[in-house]
Structures are given as structure tokens and as C-alpha cells.
Amino acid sequence: MCGILAVLGCSDDSRAKRVTNRLKHRGPDWSGLHQHGDCFLAHQRLAIVDPASGDQPLFNEDKSVIVTVNGEIYNHEELRKQLPNHKFRTGSDCDVIAHLYEEHGEDFVDMLDGIFSFVLLDTRDNSFIVARDAIGVTSLYIGWGLDGSVWISSEMKGLNDDCEHFECFPPGHLYSSKERGFRRWYNPPWFSEAIPSAPYDPLVLRRAFEQAVIKRLMTDVPFGVLLSGGLDSSLVASITARYLANTKAAEQWGSKLHSFCVGLEGSPDLKAAKEVADYLGTVHHEFHFTVQDGIDAIEDVIYHIETYDVTTIRASTPMFLMSRKIKSLGVKWVISGEGSDEIFGGYLYFHKAPNKEEFHRETCRKIKALHQYDCLRANKSTFAWGLEARVPFLDKAFIDAAMNIDPEYKMVQVKNVTSWIDGLKAHAAKHVTDRMMLNAGNIYPHNTPITKEAYYYRMIFERFFPQARRLTVPGGASVACSTAKAVEWDAAWSSNLDPSGRAALGVHISAYDKQNNLANKGVEIEKIIPMDAAPLGVTIQG
């Protein structure tokens, strides 16, 4: 994984070379810049697979095809076998891209099983293609200069000062210079939001998730698992611990899994994570932060994650602080549990869905928007310190299996909310006055902040990215992380638009008041993968 930047059709080479330094935090192991005429392909590498020879840009045999890529191609060994007449220059998993292009032209992207953003330049006709992975796990932006140049960057800060117009590169899409436009390469059955009717088969779901985790253990460097003690990360940690011993990583670095957790002193997440870590036998690392630590980091967080979305900033801050400490231990990547709440309807508000059809459509909307929220957080909060996060719940095959289940089988889950959010709100209230809120619509007519916390983040964001407010950050009403459409499910929500789960917490808990916390956790596990049908080897105690 890395940071990429490409400038195509730029006559001013000094501009192209200057902006590459803005992404150095993403790749501390190698900096590469290749120029062909008025095209520049730059790369900041975090070396994880083949650290000795996988530096970029990558080439085909005669160097007529050039690729700079941020990603992990998990099926690269299988793809190499399908290319017997090609000679590979490196052992990098991404080396297959140039050769697949030679064989299949622009229609090879769906063959890649992994996460990726890449720019491919064909010097034979000076054409290029750009592609982003199915869900948008890797971050990517595209911009256009007044001189006709096209700019591609892993982060917005690579484009902010040099493009007349820029926007998020849409996930699951390819941009072709020959066609001068985008086309979708990722077209799974669930994307149409048609309601599936397949019965729930826990063994099918289990196998799909196990394979999603196992394929992500591809590495030549030390790694660990993010463990909050909740269902999502506990399942990831359990499968990783079970299968680690038989991997190449275990041969190089040992079979003892390291787990990491962050929280306020005494928080329930820390307690739950410790219980799961003790059960699994991981080497557990517990990091603490204070509300003031988080507040002090807010400006750095917004600069790195490049958004003013309230829930994303709240969740990114602890992850940002933890990532720095993880990297200091010599760990280069972590496996994490993002994406399950979107796929299974795990947010608190889902219990208000009027029927299974609306429930399913909301999960589809949530998955389609992940690149603007949890994927953005997981990618940029970690890469701020040169750390990579891998997310098995967002594996293409696993999503297909999970989204093919009749939504009747999917249930909501209880989540904990800590005083971290209260501390943020109190801090914002000190910096944003009531008078400022009265004029919010005049100052910020687009995505007008409706809370003092949102206004505070917006002020910081506008200082860093004054041109980006209309183009890169989502908006609209939200309650408990919902889409704007789901707010219509309950009339009371329109007067309580807090984007965190606490907005729906009271009504949710009332539906579960006959169960204690231990029973809730047991129900959560049973709903996704029944323990008597397919035990995963993890017991979560309350």
C-alpha cells in the first residue's frame, strides 16, 4: 500500500514534482517518480509484500506500460499462472496489473481480487486508465487543471492547490482517457437494490468470511489486529488467531498474534477487548487517551482525513492516536472490522425499518457510501502514520454472500457510546457561539452545519481545503449514522439529528429491556453465525 499521484498532460514539470512531497506520510519506505513526456507518475511506498524489489512505478517487459498503484492484489499468484508468457520484474502482488492490461486491454479490472487505486499509462499511444476498488477502501481523487491536465491523487491535498475542479474518484469505476469519462466495472447483484430471497446459510457465510480474513494475511512484514471487544473485531481476531500459524507471516514473525485497542481510561471497550484478547491468547496492547488528547489532535485529524463529517471525525481521532503508537512498535499493517454494520444493519436505527425491503435498501445505500465514511476513516487515520488497515468484511465475495441473504434474517445490534462524544460537544460549544449558529446558513449555505460541533469542524476544514466544500464531503440529515432517506422512518428523529448512535439509543434499548448485556452479545453472535452450527472459536463475555 502507498500513496499515488499522477499528473497527465502537464507542461510544468516543477508543479508535478513539487506536489509529490504532500503524500510522503503514506509511504515512508520508498519514493518513486517516473516521467514520460508531459506525464508524471509518483509513488510513496509502504512496503508490505516483496519489500526488497517491489518499488514503483511498475512496468511490463519493454516498459511501454507504466503503473503506479496503491493496493493489495490478493489473487496475484493465481493471476500470474494465467500469464505464462509474461516475465515479471518483481514479486509485488501489484506487478500483474500491467501484464493483465497487455492481455485484456481495459477490461481486466474485475479480475483483480483486492483493494486498489491505480493509474496505468500506455506510452505507445499516450492513453491512460485510472481505477478504484469496488467499495472504495483505498482513497482516490481526480482533478482537472486549467491547462487541460488530469490529476490523480490518493489524497485531496495532492490536488487542492493545482486543480480548477476536483472530486472523489467513484468506487468501482474506471476512467479511460480514450473515452474521456467514467464507467462502472463493479456491478454486483445487490447494487440494483433488488430484494434477495436466499435463505440464511450460516456455513456459507462462515466460509466466505474465513476466506476473506485468510487471504488478507498475505504479508512479508509484522502486523496485528484492531480489537475493540465488539462482535465485528472479535470475529476478525478469532479467525486471524486460528489460521495465523499456517501462514508465511508466522514463519517469518512467529504465530503469536498482537492485538491493539484504544479508549478512555476505564471505558467498556477496553474491558471487553481485554476479555477477548485473554480468551484468544493474543499479545494485547492497550492504549489510553484523554478527552483533551483528542481535542488537541482534532486539527491534525481533519487535515489528514480531509472531511468535516462529525461522526467520521469522532471515530477517526482515537484511531489516529492509536495508529501512531502501533507504528512505533514496528507494525506496518493491521486487520480491522469496518463494514459489518453496513452489511448486516448493525446501526441502532435499523430496528425502525418499516419492512425488510426498506431495511435491505438502506444497507445497500450504506455500503455505497462507505468510501465517504468508514473506509475514508480507516484508510487515512492509519496512513497518517504510514500504517495500513485491511478490512475483510468488505471482501467482494463476502459482500456477495451476505447481501444475497433474505434481509428478514438480519437484526440490529447494541453499541456502546462513551463520554468522548460529550467532551467533543462541550469543547465545540466553547468555540462556536449561538450568534454564529444563527448565521450558519449564510456562512455555509452548502451542507449547513446544524450543531456547534459540526460548525467547529467545518471552520477547521475550510482553513485547510477552502475549495473543496461542495465537492468531496457528503451531507444531509442523519440520525445514528443513517442515510437521509432513513430519517423518514420515525417522525421524532427529525428533531434529534445527532449523527451518533445515541440518538436512537433510548428506543432501541426499550426493545431489548428483557435481555441483559450478556444475552445481547450472545444474540448478536447467533444472528450472524450460530455458534452451534459453525463455531468460530471465540467466546465473548459481558
UniProtKB/TrEMBL annotation:
InterPro entries reported for this sequence: Asn_synth_AEB, Asn_synthase, Asn_Synthetase, AsnB_N, GATase_2_dom, Ntn_hydrolases_N, Rossmann-like_a/b/a_fold
Gene Ontology terms for molecular function: asparagine synthase (glutamine-hydrolyzing) activity; ATP binding
Enzyme nomenclature, EC number: 6.3.5.4
UniProt keyword annotations, A-Z: Amino-acid biosynthesis, Asparagine biosynthesis, ATP-binding, Glutamine amidotransferase, Ligase, Nucleotide-binding
GO cellular component, as recorded: cytosol
Enzyme's top EC category: ligase
Gene3D superfamilies: Glutamine Phosphoribosylpyrophosphate, subunit 1, domain 1 (3.60.20.10), HUPs (3.40.50.620)
Keyword Transport appears in the UniProt entry: no
Record field: catalytic activity: L-aspartate + L-glutamine + ATP + H2O = L-asparagine + L-glutamate + AMP + diphosphate + H(+)
Pfam families xrefs: Asn_synthase, GATase_7
Gene Ontology biological process terms in this record: asparagine biosynthetic process
Entry keyword annotation includes Nucleotide-binding: yes
Pathway(s) annotated for this protein in UniProt: Amino-acid biosynthesis
Limits of the Glutamine amidotransferase type-2 domain: 2-180
SUPFAM superfamilies assigned to the protein according to its UniProt record, in alphabetical order: Adenine nucleotide alpha hydrolases-like, N-terminal nucleophile aminohydrolases (Ntn hydrolases)
Name of the molecule in the record: asparagine synthase (glutamine-hydrolyzing)
Organism: Vigna mungo
